[in-house]
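Example 3.2
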Amino acid sequence: MTITVLLLLPGLLMANEVYFSPKGHIRDQILKRINHSRTSIDIAMYSLTSREIADALARAKERGVRVRVVRDLSQTSEKEDEDVVLEQAAIEVHILKGLGRGIMHDKFAVFDGQEGFTGSYNWTNNAEYDNYENAYFFNDPHIVQAYAREFEVLWAMEPIAAKERSARQPVGSLPFLRTHPAMSVFGLFFVLLALAAALST
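Structure, written as tokens:
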């Protein structure tokens, strides 16, 4: 379902679009904006498991678009997480967490500094096909700049070091195990073998 709202202001026409899932083709709208971006894409996304979106971001990086991504620590250990694809494409990914036991729960993006995205919609298959979600695309300059400023606040925070991230990841989610299915079985076997040896001594 799509709703387009036109705001008529003196000398300015602004289009805002609202989409709803499941099966509301929100991913297509995100992909369209990624593919049309020419200078920059800034993303703060709690969960990102869509390979289509990750691949589109990698292609954007290849054509010279500056792509920056802020993610939540708890989600990067999910087995379907696409941070590995982003990092292989040399896309900068900053991993954050919230205050105390909090999380980085933002879901927004700014394309070329001119259009924004926000809503409940994570960039995942579940959000596209199963969940009731909403997505709001806007080009009001004041709102776009507010999100751009907030992204810079997040980006300026000290990202969680790779050492701490790997210490929190379960064995099955480590990148070299996840990206190579054969290694996943081997890795699990190796861990079980090592545990058996340790218990027998």
